[in-house]
Structure formats: structure tokens, C-alpha cells
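INFO  loader      accepted 1 record
INFO  loader      residues=124
INFO  predictor   begin
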Amino acid sequence: MPVLYHGTSFGYATAMAGTPAVGTIDITRGEGEFGQGFYTQKSSSNAARRGQGIYGQNYGILVLTIDDQAYHGLRFKRLTLRMVQRLDARLKNNHTKNIYTTAHDVMSARWLGSRKSSSRSFKR
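INFO  predictor   done
INFO  writer      dumping C-alpha cells
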């Protein structure tokens, strides 16, 4: 059962978490570099560091626990660093960074500025 973390503000983490009984996440709250969605990682300490670095004491961590069957049913797109660089340049040139969408549920890559860990972007 994968457990992933997203460092953000406490308010965003709470809003994205939605209703716990339903077990859904509101991905429309995210507006990252690659459009609607949000980024996760396997390290809770890195997520906390990111949240604190941006939001100070008002940071929060969204914890995603996904059962294996649901996780393996997601449509993944794996990107190389070069693919990320090209996509980033294209979105900047087209002024579509915050509105880009894809048919994939998850984009997995080593994001710009990251030297070793991969992140997963949950998309709409």
C-alpha cells in the first residue's frame, strides 16, 4: 500500500483532503507547474521541509495512502528529466503552465531542480 506525502499549507492540505469517509482527494485545488494536480513524494521529511519553506509555521502535510488495487489501476506516464524540461519549456512558451491537463492520472518523474528523488504528480 503506497504512502505518499505532499507538503503545502495547512489550509490547502485540509481542503484537498476532502471528506475522510469518502476517501477522495480534490485535485482541482492544485495548480502546479504542470497544471491541475499536485506533487507527492515518498519522504515525509522532504514534504515537511517544502511546506515549511513556503508557508512557515502554517505548513501542513497531506498524507495519501492508496490501496494496491487502486494504485495499480491508475494511468501512469513516466517522464525522463529531458521530457520534463521540454514539457516545462512548452508550457511556459504557450502560457499554459497552470491549466495543462493530460489523460494520465499520474505523471512520474524527476522534477526540475531535483537531483535524486522522483515525484508523482496526480493529475486530472
